[in-house]
Amino acid sequence: MNEFEHLLPDRVINAAETYLGVPMSGLAVPLPSYINRVYELQSMAGERYVAKFYRPGRWEAAAIAEEHRFIFDCAAEEIPVITPTPSCRGETLMATDDGVVFTVFPKKFGRELEILCGDDWRRIGRVAARIHLAGARRSATHRTVLTPEESTAAYLDHLMEGDYIPASCRPEFYEVAERLYSLLEGRFDGIERIRIHGDCHRGNILERPDEGLMIIDFDDMMTGPPVQDLWLLLPEHVEQCRRELDLVLDGYCELRDFDFNTIQLIEPLRAMRMIYFLAWCSTQMDDFKFRANFPDWGSEAFWRREIGDLRRQLELIRY
């Protein structure tokens, strides 16, 4: 089912007018987003906005509110982020007539960060540390908790119980998944867990003149180990890019302590992300945008590749 089938441009514009309380122009440009529906809009006064319509069923309103709370907490610490624009009623969430929850952000421009030298890696480490200082100041009770027991187990159950994997691939997938989970289970016991960005790759870091590094897209914000926000920045597996990791940690440790024992969690976290991505894809199979982006998802060839990738990840974790 396509949960956004009724979200046509005229409805997007009308929703934004209701939210902002100002007349909008006819501009409604769809922006890239795998999960949600995102549009660039313009008011009649010429102000640019980005309206984000959250995929129904993915997050409760309380969980989205925690995302917004985290962004505002970062802004309070003068971390460059894009905070939601309060509606004319003073809220940051509203629902369309069809029940799709959305918010509106100011449109801000920037270029994707280019990493040209060691100090660029240190800058990333410093901004990650600042986000984590803000993240540690309060908890989030409605977001994903990034541990094998509290997130990965559910994703594996979803994949194994659903009709997503061809019969010819199921035994091998089950075998690899069970071996992986047995290596992951218990590894996160006693590890610090705070509010983190959750998807802090370089595509979500913009360079803005006079503002420095801006972090965007907190949609995957979660509770988890701080190292999750560091390994996604690396260009390769941890053993192939220790120099880059050391530089990031140099910057990070200027502002916040880091548990160096959690470096050993990077490859397990990569495996957990691979499983999460498979589970997420399985819930989007009927979405026309998903089918356009992943035309071979679910085929036997697709699952053979994924099983091979999981098996290689299993070996990295074992050794």
Give the secondary structure arrangement, pairings included.
Blueprint: H1 9-20, E1 24-31, E2 37-43, E3 48-53, H2 61-76, E4 94-95, E5 101-106, E6 111-112, H3 118-135, H4 148-161, H5 170-184, E7 194-196, E8 205-208, E9 212-215, E10 222-224, H6 228-231, H7 242-253, H8 266-282, H9 288-293, H10 300-318
Antiparallel strand pairs: 1-2, 2-3, 3-5, 4-5, 6-8, 7-10, 8-9
Question: What does this entry look like structurally?
Answer:
With 319 residues, the chain is of the alpha+beta class. The protein folds into two domains: 100 residues, Phosphorylase Kinase, domain 1 (2-Layer Sandwich), CATH 3.30.200; 201 residues, Transferase(Phosphotransferase) domain 1 (Transferase(Phosphotransferase), domain 1). Helices cover 42% and strands 14% of the residues. It is built from ten helices and ten strands. It has a five-stranded antiparallel beta sheet with strand order 1-2-3-5-4, covered by helices on one side. Strand 8 and strand 9 form a beta hairpin. The longest helix has 19 residues. It is globular and about 60 Å long. The termini are far apart. 31% of the residues are buried. The model has no long low-confidence stretch (mean pLDDT 92).
